[in-house]
UniProtKB/TrEMBL annotation:
Keyword terms: Fatty acid metabolism, Lipid metabolism, Lyase
Protein name: enoyl-CoA hydratase
Biological processes, Gene Ontology terms: fatty acid beta-oxidation
Entry's Gene Ontology molecular function annotations: 3-hydroxyacyl-CoA dehydratase activity
Entries under SUPFAM superfamilies matching the protein: ClpP/crotonase (SSF52096)
Organism whose genome encodes this protein: Sphingopyxis fribergensis
Gene name as annotated: fadB1
Lipid metabolism is among the record's keywords: yes
EC number: 4.2.1.17
Amino acid sequence: MTYETLLVETRGAVTLVTLNRPQALNALNSCVLDDLIAAFAAFEVDASQRCAILTGSGDKAFAAGADIKEMADKPAADFYLEDFFSKWTSDFVKKVRKPWIAAVNGFALGGGCELAMMADFIIASDKAKFGQPEIKLGVAPGMGGSQRLTRAVGKAKAMEMCLTGRMMDAEEAERSGLVARVVQHENLVDEAVKTATVIAAMPPMAAMVNKDMVNAAYETTLDQGLIYERRLFQILAATEDKAEGMAAFIEKREGVWKGR
Ligand code: CAA
């Protein structure tokens, strides 16, 4: 399958998706967003693929935001009537049950920062820069930035970033809990593929369940989250991969996963 605005390749069980509009700093127009939904839907149903990576083409940007040129003349009523960005802020994240990583190679601004935050975690190049500069355009985040950034870095930093539009560099982003790890720019994709390969080698259903449990921590009280975690643990206990994983440990060998 080919896409107008993405490059998609596989490295073993890892799908590498690259945003490919470098001339516009990978700005997210409707075509990119639709291509991403299609590419991740294909990843989701391909049983040979176990973890995905999303990165940006070119040396400069992961994505410099929603496409300002596409939005500039759009009437407010259209944003409202189309429920603009709704496919993104809720559906997309929930439909991708397999793990995926954002490998942020440069500017991740506005919708670009919001897209990176939709990933299960972010690995950043030491040249990455994160920000929600929408206020400078007379608007505000529209793809989850005010919610996910606040949950990731806390109210003080999120509020400061949204109100001033300032960017956070990779080192500050790691210190603030926005990114899991910072790596040298030149090694970003290799490091992300290494990490994704580790995840891809895990029992696939257990990977989905682990993702589901951690995400539930955003949505529930501690009591409800603990019950949810226990129930999912109990379901995993009935899988063939649980029997295989524990037998493999005891027999001092590698597990062979069935994904069920
Ligand atoms: N939309 C459309 N085009 C964009 C873009 C965007 N978000 N960001 C950059 N581009 C285009 C530029 O217009 C330029 O195109 P031309 O060569 O045709 O003029 C090209 O990409 C290169 O950009 P610059 O010349 O501006 O590059 P720079 O190195 O001087 O600056 C930058 C880099 C600081 C990232 C700057 O491009 C910038 O500030 N971009 C906009 C960032 C922004 O405001 N993002 C938020 C968008 S709104 C949003 O995302 C809403 C939401 O919550 C969903």
